[in-house]
């Protein structure tokens, strides 16, 4: 007998789990299908040589203190019925944007960023206040102005090109699927999440967030099927009627939410013979993890995250040649958060480096060459990073590296594109009346953004329209 659900959710990442919880609260029969053996997608974790590693997590963005009534974090806590304390978020110590000869610090207080801009670019502080006023009323779910050019928008506000490049650097690194420029709407979303709200992290990492999400989903009667990859979405006329799994099992549903990405979801639909794969995202990364024999602060690295670029022009494009482009990157230490005294220090000192990479070149390597190149580019990315932070290389006792191939395996995104396709669909709609997107290609990114995406799409398409 074929199982029938109110909603099938493709993907057990943050957005899929959040959507599942929201729907299960309203007694919907919900099934989440996850192709891998564990949940989380790229925001997951693994264990190697006795150590736990987070995948993808530098920081939880959109952080606001306990008691805050507005913002994405407050919204998700309210809608999923969690307490602020459940996620045990500890704020950052302080981060920086580092370009040659100029360094702008920022933390979770907007006034500090104001003071830093006044210090580094005193002629631009009034223009910065003008920018803040223009961002105040942006609606995250309005498609109309989303795709405008951010570079053009900022050039009309600031007359200092270097400040524009420096403001764009962390925002593009943390949520931009489009090369060189950034959609205006994505800029507004990321500016708020990083500069007007901020960074935090659970002491136990992403595992804690996933544990709460899956525990809540199952307690409400939700069904999770691991190692259950979807082979196809069955279509009848203008509606999806169910899915066929790779093992041949068929499931039926009134509606389907997919966090797989717009192109990847279209490829599953059995009514489409052509998918515009050329519209897939191209920006992907390698990430290295260095384990130190002491805390990063003991070797002089006291900041939480440093976004660096080695020239006045920010490089946000796939590499023109070679496997990676080390001219820009992200340096992060999970040790450098203000954990409570009861938590203490993380056992290992950790520094994570993220570098732009080329999927096709990594994909086409032989296995032997793939392993060799991982070590080669680890060395190159570290050498680039230590131009902007204290040199920690003499304290490294263990390393690991994951590449665009790893990202492709855990997200299913074409080209291992971390932020999915450049063209976002803010209302989550597709060519079918009851098939909807959530997650990266809906337009919200990061852990909090992904969770809010799942909630928003569940509310909009699965609760208001319950046919």
Automatic annotation (TrEMBL):
One of its GO terms (molecular function) is oxidoreductase activity. InterPro entries: Amino_oxidase, FAD/NAD-bd_sf. Residues 14-458 form the Amine oxidase domain. Transmembrane segments: none annotated. Gene3D superfamilies: FAD/NAD(P)-binding domain (3.50.50.60). Keywords: Oxidoreductase. Belongs to the carotenoid/retinoid oxidoreductase family. This is Amine oxidase domain-containing protein. It comes from Aureliella helgolandensis. The lineage of its organism: Bacteria, Pseudomonadati, Planctomycetota, Planctomycetia, Pirellulales.
């Amino acid at each position: 007998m074929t199982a029938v659900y109110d909603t099938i959710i493709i993907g057990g990442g943050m957005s899929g789990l959040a959507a599942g919880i929201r729907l299960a609260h309203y007694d919907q029969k919900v099934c989440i299908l996850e192709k891998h053996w564990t949940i989380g997608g790229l925001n997951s974790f693994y264990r190697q040589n006795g150590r736990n590693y987070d995948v993808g997590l530098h920081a939880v963005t959109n952080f606001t203190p306990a008691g805050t009534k507005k913002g994405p974090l407050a919204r998700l806590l309210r809608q999923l019925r969690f307490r602020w304390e459940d996620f045990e978020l500890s704020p950052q110590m302080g981060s920086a944007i580092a370009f040659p000869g100029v360094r702008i610090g920022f933390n979770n207080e907007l006034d500090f960023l104001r003071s830093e801009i006044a210090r580094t670019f005193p002629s631009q502080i009034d223009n910065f206040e003008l920018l803040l006023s223009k961002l105040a009323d942006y609606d995250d779910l309005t498609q109309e102005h989303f795709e405008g050019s951010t570079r053009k928008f900022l050039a009309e506000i600031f007359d200092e090109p270097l400040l524009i490049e420096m403001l764009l650097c962390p925002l593009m690194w943390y949520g931009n699927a489009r090369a060189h420029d950034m959609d205006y709407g994505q800029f507004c979303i990321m500016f708020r999440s990083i500069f007007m709200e901020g960074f935090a992290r659970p002491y136990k990492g992403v595992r804690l967030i996933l544990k709460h999400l899956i525990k809540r989903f199952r307690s409400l009667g939700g069904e999770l099927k691991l190692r259950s990859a979807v082979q196809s979405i069955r279509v009848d006329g203008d509606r999806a009627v169910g899915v066929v799994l790779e093992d041949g099992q068929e499931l039926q549903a009134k509606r389907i939410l997919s966090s797989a990405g717009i192109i990847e979801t279209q490829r599953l639909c059995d009514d489409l013979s052509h998918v515009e794969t050329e519209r897939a995202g191209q920006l992907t990364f390698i990430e290295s993890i260095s384990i130190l024999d002491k805390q990063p602060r003991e070797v002089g690295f006291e900041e939480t995250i440093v976004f660096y670029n080695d020239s006045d022009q920010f490089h946000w494009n796939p590499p023109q040649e070679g496997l990676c482009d080390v001219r820009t990157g992200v340096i992060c230490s999970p040790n450098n958060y203000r954990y409570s005294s009861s938590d203490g220090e993380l056992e290992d000192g950790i520094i994570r480096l993220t570098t732009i990479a080329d999927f096709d070149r990594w994909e086409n390597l032989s296995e032997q060459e793939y392993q060799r190149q991982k070590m080669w580019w680890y060395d190159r990315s570290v050498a680039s990073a230590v131009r902007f932070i204290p040199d920690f290389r003499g304290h490294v006792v263990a390393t690991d590296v994951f590449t665009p191939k790893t990202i492709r395996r855990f997200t299913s995104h074409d080209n291992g594109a971390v932020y999915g396709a450049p063209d976002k669909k803010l209302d989550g709609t597709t060519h079918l009346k009851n098939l909807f997107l959530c997650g990266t290609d809906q337009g919200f990114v990061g852990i909090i953004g992904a969770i809010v995406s799942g909630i928003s799409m569940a509310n909009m398409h699965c609760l208001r329209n319950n046919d």
